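Hi support team,

I'm filing this because I wasn't sure whether my run with adenosine-5'-triphosphate finished correctly. The job status page said complete, but I'd like someone to confirm that the output block is well-formed before I use it downstream. Pasting the exact inputs I used:
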Amino acid sequence: MQVFLEKTVSSQLDPRWLAPRPDGFPRIGTMLLQANLISPSQLQTVLEGQNPEDPEDLTGTLLIEQGVIGAGELLTFLHQKLLEEQQAYRDNPPPAPAIQFRGVEKHLDGRKVLDGVDLAIPAKRITAIIGVSGGGKSVTLKHIIGLMAPDKGDILIGDQNITGMDAKRLNLIRRRFGMLFQGGALFDSMNVFDNVAFPLRENARLPEDEVARRVHTSLREVNLATMGHKFPDELSGGMLKRAALARALVVRPEFILLDEPTAGLDPIIENAIHHLICDTYMRTRYTMVFISHAVPEIFNWCHHVVALHQGKVLASGPALEIRRSNDPVLKQFINGELTGPIKVI
Ligand SMILES: Nc1ncnc2c1ncn2[C@@H]1O[C@H](COP(=O)(O)OP(=O)(O)OP(=O)(O)O)[C@@H](O)[C@H]1O
Ligand SMILES: [Mg+2]
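And here is everything the job wrote out:
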């Protein structure tokens, strides 16, 4: 009887919600349904009022808000899915990269900071960039978003070469990115709402009620729905990172770049931010690139890893492979050892 009832309700669900998303990824509601963590009727309740064409999958947020599933339970489930995807990614990496560097060189203050970097960042996956301090990670991210230009080599976003691109076209490319800078870089004089609204007001010229709607959605997504009126100096380190993530998300970019989103946070908050990044990815399926010092944990939170060392790519590949690398530099870095090819003392 129960099975019959569930089937009946399931057949009443809008079929668009059970079909894969247009980008081919499964919907969060479908995954939860298949895992028997929610019932079709619970899913039906939260889906009403949602727009299936909306690029953001808010099902998880709504299920939590309506008390159907606990936040911890959902985040743990999504992380489990990411771990399963890591294996699929290792066995079948997607063919077309979203971002490519070809022989990129950059001198800063007379020093060669990037020394012939060749990179391929997979589309619609999470890539972590790791490496010792000063190895060129932030500089690499700034090249991706066009804040720095290479002295030599090419940078491609999709099939567009941004090297030498004029300012107007580069600005259009930049709008496809959401960026969380190292340190958060919120404006101290603005409250959280205005900080998150900033990129929308600057570029998108949306009516204020649409700005408010989108800011509110982004704040809900990072669990800061009631914090819009707070100023940055009233927030904890973890909240600041979440507000900065909301600001990166609000423009609904194709790419999200995060420069050390967990730096300076205690291990619990670091873990919470990793879960939040995973949740953001599962909802949006944006191409995400983040720099992290959180080794070896980081290998559990991404599909692909790029290790930069002394301005070159030391290793690039599926997280599950790089983790097992026998490269002495990589092993020393991953294990945090004092002795080895990297001279620290
Ligand atoms: N604007 C700049 N002008 C001059 N030198 C710079 C500039 N930005 C970075 N550098 C130098 O380039 C090198 C790489 O810097 P980068 O910030 O990319 O390192 P990183 O790998 O991000 O390190 P960390 O892990 O400490 O953040 C460093 O030696 C740094 O001093
Ligand atoms: Mg840096």
